[in-house]
């Protein structure tokens, strides 16, 4: 039987020519096209936008001066108070609910599950209005510290449901051998949970809990629905009122930048913490 061999194209002894581009070259060309499109769009915006009008209506120096010092001494201060107080309430309630979710007592697990589903399903604004208006009107219940107490409890309840699930995930991420080792040393289940598991879980959940702080900082803008005064105003309401009075957008832009002063560093801290945890693994 005779066999037929196919000779490669081209001069003898040379490999066949490759056709097309390598994946690396195609990727470089694709990136180059994307950068070129972005540059064209940026140049077009620089040319088309009337920067004089932008400066006049969004960054008016005269309007910026009028915002100080109240934007920091009143609006920013109140925003921080609302955020921190709600976070403390949410943290404490969330940890308790998480421990109930992991309890060996079935009724505790069901109560915690219902709690989480209700407060994760309701809008934070609705929870805030129920605490701020519903309870005082229906039951005559008055919150301590007036508006500050209403915000702490209302936003804290909404945040606690999310924190509870975060805590639960962190606790379940701790190796079970830690508890078994503690029990072998004579510790009770509850003491092992409090002294061994929870501290380790807290280190695990620091990044998502910091994210929750950022979300609460922005959610503090919902406080205006409760009818705040000039002394209890927060950043969003302050910027909106000043903007309407001046007929200018500059106060709103400055209020937004004031939020960024807090949220951007927190976001950077979260990324660093997450990167450190990945390295630790």
From TrEMBL:
GO biological process, one term: amino acid transport
Keywords from the named record: Amino-acid transport, Cell membrane, Membrane, Transmembrane, Transmembrane helix, Transport
Membrane topology: Multi-pass membrane protein
Transmembrane segments: 31-51, 71-100, 112-135, 253-271
Domain ABC transmembrane type-1: 76-270
GO cellular component annotations of the record: ATP-binding cassette (ABC) transporter complex
Any one GO MF annotation of this record: transmembrane transporter activity
CDD domains (alphabetical): TM_PBP2
Domain of life, source organism: Bacteria
Subcellular location: Cell membrane
Region (Disordered): 1-22
Family affiliation: Belongs to the binding-protein-dependent transport system permease family.
Protein name in UniProt: Amino acid ABC transporter permease
Species, as recorded: Bailinhaonella thermotolerans
């Amino acid at each position: 039987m005779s066999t037929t061999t196919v000779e490669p194209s081209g001069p003898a002894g040379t490999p066949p020519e490759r056709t097309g581009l390598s994946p690396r070259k195609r990727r470089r060309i694709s990136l180059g096209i994307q950068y070129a499109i972005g540059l064209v769009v940026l140049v077009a915006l620089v040319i088309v936008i009337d920067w004089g009008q932008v400066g006049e209506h969004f960054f008016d120096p005269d309007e910026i001066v009028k915002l100080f010092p109240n934007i920091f001494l009143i609006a920013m201060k109140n925003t921080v108070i609302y955020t921190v107080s709600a976070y403390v309430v949410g943290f404490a309630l969330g940890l308790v609910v998480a421990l109930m979710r992991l309890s060996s007592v079935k009724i505790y697990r069901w109560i915690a599950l219902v709690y989480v589903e209700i407060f994760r399903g309701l809008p934070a604004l609705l929870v805030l209005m129920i605490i701020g208006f519903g309870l005082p009107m229906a039951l005559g219940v008055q919150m301590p510290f007036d508006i500050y107490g209403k915000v702490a409890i209302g936003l804290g309840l909404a945040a606690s449901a999310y924190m509870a699930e975060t805590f639960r995930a962190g606790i379940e991420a701790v190796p079970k051998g830690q508890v078994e080792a503690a029990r072998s040393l004579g510790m009770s289940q509850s003491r092992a949970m409090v002294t061994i598991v929870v501290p380790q879980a807290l280190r695990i959940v620091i990044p998502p809990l910091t994210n929750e702080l950022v979300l609460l900082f922005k959610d503090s803008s919902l406080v205006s629905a409760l009818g705040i005064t000039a002394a209890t105003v927060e950043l969003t309401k302050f910027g909106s009122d000043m903007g309407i009075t001046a007929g200018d957008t500059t106060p709103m832009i400055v209020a937004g930048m004031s939020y960024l002063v807090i949220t951007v560093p927190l976001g950077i801290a979260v990324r660093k913490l997450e990167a450190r945890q990945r390295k630790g693994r």
